[in-house]
Amino acid sequence: MPKLSQEVVEEKKDHIEQAAKKLFIKHGFHGTSIRQIASQAGVSLGNLYNYYKTKEEILESLISRYESIITERFNDVFSQIEEPLLPENFVKLGKLLQGVVEDHSEFWLLMYIDVLEFDNQHCRKFFQGLAKKFGQRFDKHFYKLKKQKLLNEEVDPAVGFTVAYLQFLNYFLIEKLFGGNHHLGLDNDEAVLKLTELFCRGLLCPEALEENLFHN
Amino acid sequence: MPKLSQEVVEEKKDHIEQAAKKLFIKHGFHGTSIRQIASQAGVSLGNLYNYYKTKEEILESLISRYESIITERFNDVFSQIEEPLLPENFVKLGKLLQGVVEDHSEFWLLMYIDVLEFDNQHCRKFFQGLAKKFGQRFDKHFYKLKKQKLLNEEVDPAVGFTVAYLQFLNYFLIEKLFGGNHHLGLDNDEAVLKLTELFCRGLLCPEALEENLFHN
DNA sequence: TTATAAAAAACAGTCGTTCGTTTTTGTATG
DNA sequence: CATACAAAAACGAACGACTGTTTTTTATAA
Description:
homodimer; mainly alpha; 69% helix; elongated; disordered C terminus; DNA-binding
Protein backbone atom coordinates (compact mmCIF):
# COMPACT_ATOMS: atom_id res chain seq x y z
CA MET A 1 0.00 0.00 0.00
CA PRO A 2 1.48 3.34 -0.94
CA LYS A 3 1.90 6.09 1.50
CA LEU A 4 -1.20 8.20 2.06
CA SER A 5 -0.97 11.75 0.89
CA GLN A 6 -0.59 14.40 3.53
CA GLU A 7 -4.11 15.65 2.94
CA VAL A 8 -5.67 12.23 3.23
CA VAL A 9 -3.81 11.71 6.49
CA GLU A 10 -5.11 15.03 7.73
CA GLU A 11 -8.63 14.10 6.73
CA LYS A 12 -8.43 10.83 8.61
CA LYS A 13 -6.94 12.53 11.64
CA ASP A 14 -9.68 15.10 11.53
CA HIS A 15 -12.24 12.34 11.46
CA ILE A 16 -10.68 10.63 14.45
CA GLU A 17 -10.40 13.88 16.35
CA GLN A 18 -14.04 14.71 15.77
CA ALA A 19 -14.87 11.45 17.48
CA ALA A 20 -12.38 12.16 20.24
CA LYS A 21 -13.78 15.63 20.76
CA LYS A 22 -17.27 14.30 21.18
CA LEU A 23 -16.09 11.95 23.91
CA PHE A 24 -13.60 14.25 25.61
CA ILE A 25 -16.09 17.04 26.14
CA LYS A 26 -18.58 14.57 27.51
CA HIS A 27 -16.40 12.47 29.79
CA GLY A 28 -13.16 14.40 30.09
CA PHE A 29 -9.74 13.25 28.99
CA HIS A 30 -9.20 10.47 31.48
CA GLY A 31 -12.86 9.56 31.33
CA THR A 32 -12.49 8.66 27.68
CA SER A 33 -10.69 5.53 26.55
CA ILE A 34 -8.79 4.93 23.35
CA ARG A 35 -11.13 2.08 22.61
CA GLN A 36 -14.10 4.42 22.78
CA ILE A 37 -12.40 6.84 20.43
CA ALA A 38 -11.54 4.09 17.99
CA SER A 39 -15.03 2.72 18.11
CA GLN A 40 -16.64 6.14 17.73
CA ALA A 41 -14.41 6.88 14.77
CA GLY A 42 -14.99 3.47 13.22
CA VAL A 43 -11.30 2.68 13.29
CA SER A 44 -9.45 -0.19 14.86
CA LEU A 45 -7.68 0.24 18.15
CA GLY A 46 -4.28 -0.55 16.76
CA ASN A 47 -4.64 1.71 13.79
CA LEU A 48 -4.98 4.75 16.01
CA TYR A 49 -1.36 4.26 16.92
CA ASN A 50 -0.37 4.68 13.31
CA TYR A 51 -1.58 8.26 13.57
CA TYR A 52 -0.79 9.18 17.15
CA LYS A 53 1.98 8.06 19.45
CA THR A 54 -0.11 8.51 22.61
CA LYS A 55 -3.60 9.36 23.77
CA GLU A 56 -2.38 12.76 24.85
CA GLU A 57 -1.21 13.45 21.32
CA ILE A 58 -4.79 13.05 20.14
CA LEU A 59 -5.91 15.77 22.51
CA GLU A 60 -3.02 18.01 21.52
CA SER A 61 -3.71 17.63 17.84
CA LEU A 62 -7.41 18.15 18.44
CA ILE A 63 -6.85 21.33 20.40
CA SER A 64 -4.45 22.84 17.93
CA ARG A 65 -6.78 22.00 15.08
CA TYR A 66 -9.69 23.56 16.91
CA GLU A 67 -7.60 26.56 17.77
CA SER A 68 -7.14 27.35 14.10
CA ILE A 69 -10.87 27.14 13.53
CA ILE A 70 -11.59 29.42 16.45
CA THR A 71 -8.91 31.87 15.51
CA GLU A 72 -10.29 32.05 12.02
CA ARG A 73 -13.79 32.55 13.36
CA PHE A 74 -12.62 35.35 15.61
CA ASN A 75 -10.80 36.99 12.75
CA ASP A 76 -14.00 36.79 10.81
CA VAL A 77 -15.83 38.47 13.67
CA PHE A 78 -13.34 41.28 14.01
CA SER A 79 -13.17 41.86 10.30
CA GLN A 80 -16.87 42.66 10.45
CA ILE A 81 -16.24 45.36 12.97
CA GLU A 82 -14.20 48.25 11.74
CA GLU A 83 -15.09 50.78 14.38
CA PRO A 84 -15.40 48.70 17.53
CA LEU A 85 -16.22 51.51 19.93
CA LEU A 86 -19.39 52.62 18.26
CA PRO A 87 -22.29 51.61 20.48
CA GLU A 88 -24.04 49.87 17.63
CA ASN A 89 -20.88 47.91 16.99
CA PHE A 90 -20.69 46.77 20.58
CA VAL A 91 -24.11 45.31 20.02
CA LYS A 92 -22.91 43.71 16.83
CA LEU A 93 -19.87 42.32 18.60
CA GLY A 94 -22.04 40.87 21.33
CA LYS A 95 -24.28 39.09 18.87
CA LEU A 96 -21.37 37.77 16.87
CA LEU A 97 -19.70 36.45 19.99
CA GLN A 98 -22.96 34.83 21.00
CA GLY A 99 -22.77 32.96 17.73
CA VAL A 100 -19.18 31.92 18.38
CA VAL A 101 -20.07 30.52 21.78
CA GLU A 102 -23.15 28.77 20.46
CA ASP A 103 -21.27 27.18 17.58
CA HIS A 104 -18.11 26.33 19.44
CA SER A 105 -18.79 25.95 23.14
CA GLU A 106 -16.85 22.70 22.84
CA PHE A 107 -13.70 24.72 22.40
CA TRP A 108 -14.06 26.12 25.89
CA LEU A 109 -14.76 22.71 27.29
CA LEU A 110 -11.50 21.56 25.77
CA MET A 111 -9.89 24.59 27.35
CA TYR A 112 -11.20 23.56 30.75
CA ILE A 113 -9.74 20.11 30.19
CA ASP A 114 -6.49 21.79 29.33
CA VAL A 115 -6.68 23.98 32.44
CA LEU A 116 -7.45 21.03 34.67
CA GLU A 117 -5.10 18.43 33.37
CA PHE A 118 -2.38 20.33 31.54
CA ASP A 119 -2.15 23.66 33.30
CA ASN A 120 -3.66 25.28 30.20
CA GLN A 121 -0.43 24.65 28.34
CA HIS A 122 -2.12 24.37 24.98
CA CYS A 123 -4.67 27.17 25.26
CA ARG A 124 -2.91 29.85 27.23
CA LYS A 125 -1.85 31.77 24.16
CA PHE A 126 -5.51 32.58 23.81
CA PHE A 127 -5.21 35.17 26.57
CA GLN A 128 -1.62 36.29 26.29
CA GLY A 129 -1.29 39.96 25.46
CA LEU A 130 -4.94 40.16 24.56
CA ALA A 131 -5.32 43.91 25.02
CA LYS A 132 -2.13 44.54 23.10
CA LYS A 133 -3.36 42.51 20.16
CA PHE A 134 -6.62 44.43 20.01
CA GLY A 135 -4.67 47.65 20.39
CA GLN A 136 -2.70 46.80 17.28
CA ARG A 137 -5.62 45.56 15.25
CA PHE A 138 -7.75 48.65 15.86
CA ASP A 139 -4.82 50.99 16.00
CA LYS A 140 -6.07 53.59 13.60
CA HIS A 141 -9.62 53.62 14.87
CA PHE A 142 -8.53 54.09 18.46
CA TYR A 143 -6.08 56.78 17.52
CA LYS A 144 -8.70 58.66 15.58
CA LEU A 145 -11.17 58.65 18.45
CA LYS A 146 -8.48 59.67 20.86
CA LYS A 147 -7.55 62.59 18.68
CA GLN A 148 -11.18 63.61 18.44
CA LYS A 149 -11.30 63.49 22.23
CA LEU A 150 -14.33 61.26 22.17
CA LEU A 151 -12.90 58.83 24.68
CA ASN A 152 -12.75 58.68 28.42
CA GLU A 153 -9.08 59.50 28.82
CA GLU A 154 -8.76 57.40 31.92
CA VAL A 155 -9.15 54.10 30.08
CA ASP A 156 -7.07 52.81 27.21
CA PRO A 157 -9.55 51.97 24.42
CA ALA A 158 -7.76 48.68 23.80
CA VAL A 159 -8.32 47.72 27.42
CA GLY A 160 -11.93 48.79 27.22
CA PHE A 161 -12.56 46.79 24.11
CA THR A 162 -10.82 43.74 25.57
CA VAL A 163 -12.96 43.95 28.66
CA ALA A 164 -16.11 44.15 26.58
CA TYR A 165 -14.98 41.23 24.47
CA LEU A 166 -14.27 39.09 27.53
CA GLN A 167 -17.51 40.12 29.18
CA PHE A 168 -19.61 39.12 26.19
CA LEU A 169 -17.84 35.79 25.94
CA ASN A 170 -18.16 35.20 29.63
CA TYR A 171 -21.82 36.07 29.65
CA PHE A 172 -22.66 33.57 26.93
CA LEU A 173 -20.39 30.90 28.38
CA ILE A 174 -22.15 31.17 31.72
CA GLU A 175 -25.44 30.84 29.91
CA LYS A 176 -24.35 27.94 27.74
CA LEU A 177 -22.07 25.87 29.94
CA PHE A 178 -22.61 26.91 33.52
CA GLY A 179 -26.37 26.81 33.68
CA GLY A 180 -26.73 30.55 34.10
CA ASN A 181 -30.36 30.53 33.03
CA HIS A 182 -30.53 34.26 32.34
CA HIS A 183 -28.29 35.08 35.25
CA LEU A 184 -28.59 38.80 34.64
CA GLY A 185 -32.35 38.55 34.69
CA LEU A 186 -32.49 39.58 31.03
CA ASP A 187 -32.89 37.72 27.82
CA ASN A 188 -29.83 37.54 25.62
CA ASP A 189 -30.67 40.47 23.38
CA GLU A 190 -31.42 42.72 26.29
CA ALA A 191 -28.24 41.61 27.98
CA VAL A 192 -26.19 42.62 24.95
CA LEU A 193 -27.87 46.01 24.91
CA LYS A 194 -27.37 46.60 28.60
CA LEU A 195 -23.76 45.52 28.50
CA THR A 196 -23.20 47.85 25.60
CA GLU A 197 -24.81 50.69 27.49
CA LEU A 198 -22.60 49.91 30.45
CA PHE A 199 -19.40 49.87 28.46
CA CYS A 200 -20.21 53.07 26.64
CA ARG A 201 -21.77 55.23 29.32
CA GLY A 202 -20.91 53.55 32.58
CA LEU A 203 -23.15 53.03 35.51
CA LEU A 204 -23.08 56.45 37.06
CA CYS A 205 -24.22 59.85 35.95
CA PRO A 206 -21.54 62.47 35.45
CA GLU A 207 -22.94 64.36 38.42
CA ALA A 208 -22.52 61.36 40.66
CA LEU A 209 -18.85 61.23 39.95
CA GLU A 210 -18.14 64.46 41.67
CA GLU A 211 -17.29 62.73 44.85
CA ASN A 212 -18.92 65.15 47.24
CA LEU A 213 -22.30 64.46 45.71
CA PHE A 214 -21.95 60.85 46.64
CA HIS A 215 -21.20 61.36 50.29
CA ASN A 216 -24.33 62.96 51.54
CA MET B 1 -15.68 -0.13 69.08
CA PRO B 2 -18.36 2.48 69.70
CA LYS B 3 -19.95 4.46 66.95
CA LEU B 4 -18.06 7.63 66.00
CA SER B 5 -19.80 10.87 66.80
CA GLN B 6 -21.22 12.87 63.92
CA GLU B 7 -18.56 15.55 64.32
CA VAL B 8 -15.70 13.08 64.30
CA VAL B 9 -17.14 11.56 61.15
CA GLU B 10 -17.32 15.00 59.58
CA GLU B 11 -13.73 15.71 60.57
CA LYS B 12 -12.53 12.51 59.00
CA LYS B 13 -14.56 13.16 55.88
CA ASP B 14 -13.13 16.64 55.67
CA HIS B 15 -9.64 15.21 55.94
CA ILE B 16 -10.33 12.72 53.16
CA GLU B 17 -11.89 15.36 50.97
CA GLN B 18 -8.92 17.67 51.37
CA ALA B 19 -6.80 14.87 49.96
CA ALA B 20 -9.31 14.23 47.21
CA LYS B 21 -9.45 17.90 46.31
CA LYS B 22 -5.71 18.08 45.93
CA LEU B 23 -5.78 15.19 43.48
CA PHE B 24 -8.98 16.09 41.63
CA ILE B 25 -7.82 19.58 40.76
CA LYS B 26 -4.52 18.21 39.55
CA HIS B 27 -5.62 15.20 37.54
CA GLY B 28 -9.37 15.60 37.14
CA PHE B 29 -12.04 13.28 38.44
CA HIS B 30 -11.37 10.27 36.27
CA GLY B 31 -7.66 10.93 36.40
CA THR B 32 -7.69 10.33 40.14
CA SER B 33 -8.09 6.87 41.62
CA ILE B 34 -9.62 5.90 44.91
CA ARG B 35 -6.35 4.32 45.88
CA GLN B 36 -4.55 7.62 45.38
CA ILE B 37 -7.12 9.39 47.53
CA ALA B 38 -6.81 6.77 50.25
CA SER B 39 -3.06 6.94 50.16
CA GLN B 40 -2.98 10.75 50.15
CA ALA B 41 -5.36 10.80 53.11
CA GLY B 42 -3.47 8.09 54.94
CA VAL B 43 -6.51 5.85 55.05
CA SER B 44 -7.02 2.34 53.83
CA LEU B 45 -8.79 1.72 50.58
CA GLY B 46 -11.56 -0.30 52.12
CA ASN B 47 -12.18 2.19 54.87
CA LEU B 48 -13.10 4.88 52.36
CA TYR B 49 -16.19 2.87 51.59
CA ASN B 50 -17.28 3.19 55.20
CA TYR B 51 -17.66 6.91 54.53
CA TYR B 52 -18.72 7.09 50.89
CA LYS B 53 -20.76 4.74 48.78
CA THR B 54 -19.00 5.70 45.56
CA LYS B 55 -16.14 7.76 44.22
CA GLU B 56 -18.62 10.27 42.84
CA GLU B 57 -20.02 10.76 46.32
CA ILE B 58 -16.61 11.96 47.43
CA LEU B 59 -16.65 14.66 44.78
CA GLU B 60 -20.21 15.62 45.62
CA SER B 61 -19.50 15.93 49.29
CA LEU B 62 -16.32 17.84 48.55
CA ILE B 63 -18.08 20.29 46.29
CA SER B 64 -20.94 20.94 48.66
CA ARG B 65 -18.51 21.41 51.53
CA TYR B 66 -16.46 23.84 49.47
CA GLU B 67 -19.57 25.62 48.36
CA SER B 68 -20.39 26.52 51.94
CA ILE B 69 -16.90 27.89 52.45
CA ILE B 70 -17.09 29.96 49.28
CA THR B 71 -20.56 31.21 50.04
CA GLU B 72 -19.44 32.30 53.46
CA ARG B 73 -16.42 34.02 51.99
CA PHE B 74 -18.55 35.88 49.49
CA ASN B 75 -20.95 36.93 52.20
CA ASP B 76 -17.95 38.23 54.08
CA VAL B 77 -16.89 40.20 51.02
CA PHE B 78 -20.31 41.72 50.44
CA SER B 79 -20.77 42.56 54.08
CA GLN B 80 -17.70 44.75 53.77
CA ILE B 81 -19.32 46.72 51.00
CA GLU B 82 -22.36 48.65 51.97
CA GLU B 83 -22.51 51.04 49.07
CA PRO B 84 -21.32 48.96 46.15
CA LEU B 85 -21.63 51.59 43.46
CA LEU B 86 -19.21 54.06 44.95
CA PRO B 87 -16.12 54.08 42.77
CA GLU B 88 -13.89 53.49 45.76
CA ASN B 89 -16.01 50.48 46.65
CA PHE B 90 -15.64 49.01 43.20
CA VAL B 91 -11.93 49.12 43.84
CA LYS B 92 -12.46 47.51 47.20
CA LEU B 93 -14.65 44.84 45.64
CA GLY B 94 -12.02 44.12 43.03
CA LYS B 95 -9.30 43.64 45.60
CA LEU B 96 -11.49 41.48 47.79
CA LEU B 97 -12.43 39.29 44.85
CA GLN B 98 -8.77 39.03 43.94
CA GLY B 99 -8.27 37.57 47.40
CA VAL B 100 -11.11 35.13 46.94
CA VAL B 101 -9.68 33.85 43.68
CA GLU B 102 -6.17 33.63 45.10
CA ASP B 103 -7.31 31.74 48.17
CA HIS B 104 -9.83 29.50 46.47
CA SER B 105 -8.98 29.07 42.81
CA GLU B 106 -9.46 25.35 43.48
CA PHE B 107 -13.16 25.97 43.79
CA TRP B 108 -13.34 27.04 40.18
CA LEU B 109 -11.29 24.07 39.11
CA LEU B 110 -13.85 21.88 40.80
CA MET B 111 -16.51 23.82 38.98
CA TYR B 112 -14.82 23.07 35.66
CA ILE B 113 -14.78 19.40 36.60
CA ASP B 114 -18.45 19.71 37.36
CA VAL B 115 -19.09 21.45 34.03
CA LEU B 116 -17.14 18.86 32.10
CA GLU B 117 -18.27 15.68 33.72
CA PHE B 118 -21.57 16.47 35.40
CA ASP B 119 -23.09 19.24 33.30
CA ASN B 120 -22.42 21.65 36.19
CA GLN B 121 -25.16 19.97 38.17
CA HIS B 122 -23.57 20.73 41.51
CA CYS B 123 -22.37 24.28 40.88
CA ARG B 124 -25.01 25.80 38.69
CA LYS B 125 -26.83 27.44 41.56
CA PHE B 126 -23.78 29.69 41.76
CA PHE B 127 -25.04 31.65 38.74
CA GLN B 128 -28.79 31.26 38.99
CA GLY B 129 -30.56 34.55 39.44
CA LEU B 130 -27.34 36.30 40.25
CA ALA B 131 -28.47 39.81 39.40
CA LYS B 132 -31.68 39.30 41.31
CA LYS B 133 -29.80 38.24 44.42
CA PHE B 134 -27.61 41.32 44.30
CA GLY B 135 -30.64 43.43 43.63
CA GLN B 136 -32.19 42.16 46.84
CA ARG B 137 -29.07 42.42 48.94
CA PHE B 138 -28.33 46.02 47.98
CA ASP B 139 -31.95 46.96 47.66
CA LYS B 140 -31.90 50.08 49.74
CA HIS B 141 -28.62 51.39 48.40
CA PHE B 142 -29.74 51.01 44.81
CA TYR B 143 -33.09 52.59 45.52
CA LYS B 144 -31.48 55.54 47.21
CA LEU B 145 -29.14 56.24 44.29
CA LYS B 146 -31.97 55.85 41.85
CA LYS B 147 -34.03 58.36 43.73
CA GLN B 148 -31.13 60.79 43.80
CA LYS B 149 -30.88 60.34 40.04
CA LEU B 150 -27.20 59.52 40.25
CA LEU B 151 -27.50 56.45 38.05
CA ASN B 152 -27.52 55.89 34.34
CA GLU B 153 -31.17 55.14 33.95
CA GLU B 154 -30.58 52.78 31.08
CA VAL B 155 -28.94 50.12 33.25
CA ASP B 156 -30.38 48.40 36.29
CA PRO B 157 -27.84 48.91 39.08
CA ALA B 158 -28.16 45.26 40.08
CA VAL B 159 -27.20 44.24 36.56
CA GLY B 160 -24.32 46.68 36.58
CA PHE B 161 -23.02 45.42 39.87
CA THR B 162 -23.36 41.80 38.76
CA VAL B 163 -21.42 42.54 35.61
CA ALA B 164 -18.65 44.20 37.60
CA TYR B 165 -18.56 41.29 40.03
CA LEU B 166 -18.30 38.76 37.22
CA GLN B 167 -15.72 40.82 35.41
CA PHE B 168 -13.46 41.05 38.43
CA LEU B 169 -13.75 37.35 39.06
CA ASN B 170 -13.15 36.55 35.43
CA TYR B 171 -10.13 38.82 35.25
CA PHE B 172 -8.42 37.15 38.18
CA LEU B 173 -9.39 33.67 37.07
CA ILE B 174 -7.82 34.29 33.69
CA GLU B 175 -4.71 35.48 35.45
CA LYS B 176 -4.59 32.64 37.92
CA LEU B 177 -5.81 29.60 36.00
CA PHE B 178 -5.65 30.41 32.31
CA GLY B 179 -2.15 31.81 32.08
CA GLY B 180 -3.32 35.32 31.26
CA ASN B 181 -0.02 36.85 32.25
CA HIS B 182 -1.36 40.39 32.56
CA HIS B 183 -3.70 39.94 29.64
CA LEU B 184 -4.91 43.52 29.85
CA GLY B 185 -1.36 44.80 29.75
CA LEU B 186 -1.74 46.14 33.28
CA ASP B 187 -0.69 44.94 36.67
CA ASN B 188 -3.47 43.78 38.93
CA ASP B 189 -3.92 47.00 40.86
CA GLU B 190 -4.07 49.06 37.70
CA ALA B 191 -6.51 46.60 36.21
CA VAL B 192 -8.85 47.01 39.16
CA LEU B 193 -8.67 50.77 38.82
CA LYS B 194 -9.29 50.75 35.10
CA LEU B 195 -12.16 48.32 35.38
CA THR B 196 -13.67 50.52 38.05
CA GLU B 197 -13.29 53.54 35.85
CA LEU B 198 -14.92 51.66 33.02
CA PHE B 199 -17.88 50.53 35.08
CA CYS B 200 -18.47 53.96 36.54
CA ARG B 201 -17.83 56.28 33.61
CA GLY B 202 -17.89 54.07 30.56
CA LEU B 203 -15.57 54.21 27.64
CA LEU B 204 -16.97 57.13 25.75
CA CYS B 205 -17.31 60.82 26.50
CA PRO B 206 -20.82 62.17 26.75
CA GLU B 207 -20.21 64.16 23.59
CA ALA B 208 -19.35 61.02 21.68
CA LEU B 209 -22.68 59.51 22.47
CA GLU B 210 -24.56 62.01 20.45
CA GLU B 211 -24.54 59.81 17.45
CA ASN B 212 -23.98 62.41 14.83
CA LEU B 213 -20.66 63.28 16.34
CA PHE B 214 -19.52 59.74 15.76
CA HIS B 215 -20.33 59.51 12.10
CA ASN B 216 -18.07 62.07 10.59
C1' DT C 1 -18.15 -9.79 74.67
C1' DT C 2 -19.79 -7.12 71.06
C1' DA C 3 -20.55 -3.58 67.87
C1' DT C 4 -17.78 -0.85 65.01
C1' DA C 5 -13.85 1.03 62.60
C1' DA C 6 -10.00 -0.01 59.87
C1' DA C 7 -7.31 -2.77 56.98
C1' DA C 8 -6.39 -6.24 53.65
C1' DA C 9 -7.53 -9.28 50.10
C1' DA C 10 -10.15 -10.57 46.31
C1' DC C 11 -13.02 -9.58 42.15
C1' DA C 12 -14.25 -8.59 37.68
C1' DG C 13 -13.20 -5.37 34.43
C1' DT C 14 -10.81 -1.71 31.87
C1' DC C 15 -6.80 0.95 30.89
C1' DG C 16 -3.01 2.60 27.47
C1' DT C 17 0.10 0.52 24.73
C1' DT C 18 2.60 -3.08 22.02
C1' DC C 19 3.09 -6.25 18.50
C1' DG C 20 2.53 -9.97 15.23
C1' DT C 21 -0.49 -10.61 11.58
C1' DT C 22 -3.54 -9.70 7.67
C1' DT C 23 -5.35 -6.72 4.12
C1' DT C 24 -4.89 -3.33 0.82
C1' DT C 25 -3.00 -1.13 -3.24
C1' DG C 26 0.23 1.37 -6.46
C1' DT C 27 4.14 0.02 -9.08
C1' DA C 28 7.38 -2.84 -11.52
C1' DT C 29 8.03 -6.80 -14.14
C1' DG C 30 7.06 -10.28 -17.59
C1' DC D 1 -2.57 -7.03 -19.70
C1' DA D 2 -1.72 -10.08 -15.89
C1' DT D 3 1.14 -11.12 -12.25
C1' DA D 4 4.33 -10.59 -8.28
C1' DC D 5 6.22 -7.69 -5.06
C1' DA D 6 6.76 -4.54 -1.29
C1' DA D 7 5.48 -0.95 1.55
C1' DA D 8 1.95 0.92 4.12
C1' DA D 9 -2.32 0.71 6.66
C1' DA D 10 -5.51 -1.72 9.33
C1' DC D 11 -6.52 -4.99 12.58
C1' DG D 12 -7.24 -7.24 17.04
C1' DA D 13 -5.30 -10.34 20.44
C1' DA D 14 -2.31 -9.99 24.30
C1' DC D 15 0.22 -7.64 28.17
C1' DG D 16 0.76 -5.93 32.62
C1' DA D 17 -0.84 -2.53 35.38
C1' DC D 18 -4.56 -0.38 37.34
C1' DT D 19 -9.75 0.55 38.05
C1' DG D 20 -14.00 0.97 41.35
C1' DT D 21 -16.21 -1.88 44.37
C1' DT D 22 -17.19 -5.90 47.48
C1' DT D 23 -16.04 -9.16 50.79
C1' DT D 24 -13.39 -10.93 54.39
C1' DT D 25 -10.41 -10.40 58.12
C1' DT D 26 -8.30 -7.99 61.92
C1' DA D 27 -7.92 -4.37 65.46
C1' DT D 28 -10.07 -1.42 68.75
C1' DA D 29 -12.51 0.33 72.59
C1' DA D 30 -16.70 0.65 75.55
